[in-house]
Amino acid sequence: MLVGELLASSLRMAVPILLTALGAVFTERSGVVNIGLEGMMIVGSFWGALGAYYYGPYFGLIIAMAAGMFMALIHAINTVTFRVDQVVSGVAINILAYGSTRFLSLAIFNMATTSPHVSGLPKINIPVLSGIEPLKPLVNDISPVIILALLLVPISSFVIHRTVFGLRLRSVGENPLAADTLGINVFKMKYAGVLLSGIFAGLSGAYLALEHTGMYVEGMTQGQGFIALAAMIFGNWEPKGALWASLLFGFSEALSFRVVEGGVVPYQFIKMIPYVLTLLVLTGVVKKSTGPAASGVPYERGLK
Amino acid sequence: MEKAVVLKGITKRFPGIVANDRIDLEVEKGEIHAIVGENGAGKSTLMKILAGIYQPDEGEIYIFGKREKINSPGRAIELKIGMVHQHFMLVDRFTVLENIILGAEKSSGIALDEKRCRKAVEELLALYNFSLNLDARVEEISVGQAQRVEILKVLYRGADILVLDEPTAVLAPQEVRELFNNLRRLKSEGKTIIFISHKLEEVLEIADRITVLRRGKVEGTAIPSQVTKEDLARMMVGKPVMMRFDKEPLDVGEVLLSIEDLVVKESSGRPLVNGVSLKIRGGEIYGIAGIEGNGQKELAEAIIGLRTASAGRIRICGRDIADLSIKEIRDLGVAFIPEDRHRQGLVLPMKVWENMMLGYHTKKDFLKGRSLNLKAIRGFTKNKVEEYGVRLSSIEQPIEGLSGGNQQKVILGRELSRGPKVIVASQPTRGLDVGAAEFVHKELLKMRKKGSAILFISADLEEVLSISDRVGVIYNGKITAEFRPEEVTPEDIGVYMLGGEKGAGEAK
């Protein structure tokens, strides 16, 4: 029973990381590094809560995705059209997200750091499986976004590997010059990759606000956008890899809650687990896995 | 016979040069038509016009009898013209199949119809008798196979006219044989092939007709059975008007640069410089003639320490440089004028005076205590700018804003101002207009008079013959012949440049 609870909690923790990591796969595959995903999650959490507060949770999710996409559009204009350094633009996005949400929160909710309580999507039980005793915590009373996130893993994988769009997206991230000579619109593909990542991150932020906490709280993303980047790298730029990596991070977070409750070790150390794991993953794994060859390099016509 | 391609009076000008000068060319359907010429003869420009990359300034293009305007690479593909670039445009991490279909995928809905794509490509493989593993990643296959992927890419797009730009430059001999078999097979299926090369033996073997370009003009068209390699070499090199220099005879001094059996290998172990020996004395200009890519660049880089020798010895003023750093080599009195001034000679976004002191930042006269003596550096730069007549708005301006000739003057000012003993000048006039080139020649002759030993590398045969006291011909990393310019004709040297045997064109 306890194991089941722990796994269910891991899954809940993993979902925001997974969603953002899936988005990161799309943007990286198109050759654009997006460290602004954290900011896009922040924006998603705020606008998700705002949308849900006024018009209900479904509208909240949609407006969160739109807000994430809008931030991604800024990143795309910066990095693809004007070839600004991708890291610099990403940092700017993060700062903009933080500042704008605080400002809007004060203006709209009259509170700087939180929104009023909002209700999420109705929880669901998965038929058939819900009757099986050991699985109960995993399949009963869960957020539909969790199901959606899990479904998006094979869908993303299919899109990247089995569609014309995916082939072209990958070619642009690997060798944009070759793609250009074959008549592929390099800029369009890069915009598509970046915008998709914004939509995913916006959804992820909305999940945190609506499904996880029931309100927007400043700083609620807690660096999960960065952890998602680590998960994407750990998962070797593949949706399925991102799933396993996200579950690992989710598990470490869930575990940290349980151990804190136990009270043996000072809780500050336990809370570090996911972040230490991120660092270890990034230092240890990065050498072995290789991302798209042209990732992070702005493409300019006529340059070799 | 139907004409696949007819060019009439094609002229293309770039600032300062006419790359193609009223070129007429007829290529029949189903023939392999070779276009030969030296570097800079205008071959690649002409082919880029055909591929829609450049637009001609004048002239008409007829494809299969119809007058056409090829204003984009896409239009060229529509006209069934396929370009196989010398530098492959492949996605290394993709499979062979993915590379071939990219951009022209067959699909069902949004999904890629891999089966149909694979079937279409396999039919092509069978038709032309190509062997390729479609599921191998491009990064794993050989250069010859990668080239076949490039050819298949254009065939898959339905090309009837294939333009191959120096296709054999990157291939090993057995791969060349396989390529030629493939080309013959393509020809028998009715494809028209335009084959650009400067390797005469290959051209004589594969082509049905050969058009020779020289200095942007058509020198003539020949049929392989009716000409010899020497005839072609003569057509390519031509009867040049020798440039005239005020070059007084000098008593040469001591040997300042001596190279013995130098071998430089690339990381894969292939020798790029393969046993070069030469000695240059003070007051002497030693010219290296040869077609680009025969080891000239690596030879120059080995002398200044950018590459390590795998065997042999380089001595500068008698000192073996094997264990010296580049800075120590430069301190021995070596000046370097690199062939690619944008990548090696200058830091483009930096100011003119900053570029003028690159590499000399530890010299006492440029320092004040531990910091730079900006006043001295700016003063030095101003002197040099005046002395060399560098045209600029301010020495504070980034050097990328200067013209090529003025950039080169800054490099000369920097490299030649400290009385170098040995000067390595690698293609020092490349891309410069006549006036700037003349300036470079004059400065080098001044240094000769002052007693420097100069290694002068150039792909321009006339230039090498005019300026040098002795000329070595480099081919496949070896100096295959050595002459005094007055006792040899360009034709003779041309034969050696193209890999001819000793004795084939012995000096008269």
Feature tags:
heterodimer, A: 304 residues, mainly alpha, ABC transporter involved in vitamin B12 uptake, BtuC, 13 helices, 71% helix, 0% strand, globular, B: 508 residues, alpha/beta, Rossmann fold, 3 domains, six-stranded mixed beta sheet, 17 helices
Explain the layout of strands and helices.
The complex is a heterodimer of chains A (304) and B (508).
Chain A: H1 2-29, H2 37-55, H3 57-81, H4 86-109, H5 136-139, H6 144-162, H7 164-174, H8 176-181, H9 186-213, H10 224-234, H11 239-262, H12 267-271, H13 273-285
Chain B: E1 3-14, E2 17-28, E3 32-36, H1 43-50, E4 58-63, E5 66-68, H2 73-78, E6 81-84, H3 96-101, E7 107-108, E8 111-112, H4 114-128, H5 143-156, E9 161-165, H6 173-188, E10 192-197, H7 200-206, E11 209-214, E12 217-222, H8 229-237, E13 255-265, E14 271-281, E15 284-289, H9 296-303, E16 311-316, E17 319-320, H10 326-331, E18 334-337, H11 341-345, H12 352-356, E19 367-368, E20 371-372, H13 374-388, H14 404-416, E21 422-426, H15 434-449, E22 453-458, H16 461-467, E23 470-475, E24 478-483, H17 490-497
Parallel strand pairs in B: 3-10, 3-11, 6-9, 9-10, 15-22, 15-23, 18-21, 21-22
Antiparallel strand pairs in B: 1-2, 1-4, 4-5, 7-8, 11-12, 13-14, 13-16, 16-17, 19-20, 23-24
